[in-house]
Amino acid sequence: MSPLRPPLVIAVDGPAASGKGTVAEGLARHYGLPYLDTGTLYRAVALGVLSAGRDPDDAEAARRVARLLDPRLTDPVAIRDPDVGAAASVVAAHPPVRAALLDLQTRFAQQPGGAVLDGRDIGTVIAPRAPAKLFVTATPEARADRRFRQHLAAGRAVTLEGVLADILERDARDAGRGAAPLARADDAVLLDTTHLTIEAAADAARRIVEAARDRVR
Ligand code: C5P
Fold first, then answer.
1. Ligand 1 site, residue 16, Cβ cutoff 6 A
2. Cβ neighbour number for residue 34 with a 10 Å cutoff
3. Which atom of ligand 1 is nearest to the CA of 79?
């Protein structure tokens, strides 16, 4: 990378199971950048709250877990449980929880060479000046189908109808909350993965980032 080139910060946002994680991971690999899936932070808080027998609606309990969170100590399998995903979107709506996780995310985004982050508010709140922003989406049905297959592969007993209902509920909560709602930043490029293979989505994402880099060169 040329020393004169600005840090490459790539913000990837989108709803649950849109493919944003796969796209973001692929971009991080391609550009040799560190990657943070910010959803794991909210899932880790949710898991901590549930494990302590507390209610995810309890903002103070969730804030305490968030303030003490060490993401390295979180069980990566347990946080993928559908109940933890649903609770994550409840704890994520509490402003003190978001405030407690802000610093970790902004520091990650400000690493010298750049970074790739995915979530719901990366392009709007965490890295509003990121030179490359993508908003990855797909129809609720396509997203439910993907998440359903992931759960089945992990041996979890779920139904397609249940997964779709969970996704719609989570979309409504994430987009409807007051604090840093799921939203496409004005300068984010839309990538609809409904009819794309993983490879085609990865190619499209790289083209979007290259075009963004050309603009700031
Ligand atoms: O991306 P993932 O589905 O793992 O995220 C779990 C939940 O965490 C989301 O439904 C959302 O409520 C919350 N989240 C958030 N902001 C982020 C990332 C995730 O509010 N940047």
1. yes
2. 13
3. 4
The per-residue pLDDT for range 3-12, each reduced to its tens digit, is: 567 889 999 9
C-alpha pair distances (Å), 67 with each of 73, 103, 138, 203: 14, 11, 33, 38
Q: What are the Cα distances from residue 75, in Å, to 28, 100, 118?
A: 23, 20, 19
Higher pLDDT, 5 or 28: 28
Q: Contact 131/115 with Cβ under 8 angstroms?
A: no
Q: How far is the CA of 3 from the centre of ligand 1 (A)?
A: 34
Instruction: Name which of 137, 134, 164, 135 is nearest 149 in CA terms.
Output: 164
- Which strands sit side by side in the sheet containing 132-137, from one edge to the other? 35-37, 114-119, 8-13, 132-137, 189-192
DSSP 8: E
Q: Which structural domains are found in the chain, ordered by start?
A: 8-212 (3.40.50.300)
The neighbouring-strand residues paired with 12 are 118, 134
Model pLDDT for residues 163-176, shown as the tens digit of each residue: 999 999 999 999 99
pLDDT over 90 (residue 217): no
Instruction: Locate the ligand 1 atom nearest the alpha carbon of residue 43 and give its number.
Output: 6
pTM score, whole prediction? 0.94
